[in-house]
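User: Hey, quick favor. My workstation is busy. Could you predict this chain's structure for me?
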Amino acid sequence: MSAAIEPMNVSTHSVGVDAEVGISIPVDLEIIVYGGLDPVTQDLIDSVREAVDRLYKEYGIEAVFTPRIVYWDVFAFAPVLSADIPVLVINGKEVIRGRSTTSDEIIQIALSMLGVREREKPLPLLSKRDGEVFQAALTA
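Assistant: No problem, here it is.
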């Protein structure tokens, strides 16, 4: 008596199947720095990291930062590129090319792109007529 062999289903994965999982994370800003292995690019990366931290702490703005660095000496192949990198891109728009900047300037650019006004400065505590206004408010 021979037992019948049952076919078995085995899941397989093709080499060409993309195994990347797509997760949608809501963020306000996507910041990318394109650059090389040079001090100007590193300075810009440091400024962007500080700006991303401050944007969240001071304004509640979520930002994702991705440095895209070429890990070979690009200047040896094309010296002209030294004037073109680093490049700062915020939400798909190139905002700075060929130089570094401060975190304050990055924050100003990001806030203006989002249409957020920086916190307004408070009024000075006392001017010449503030005492009269205060006294009028107390008597009313």
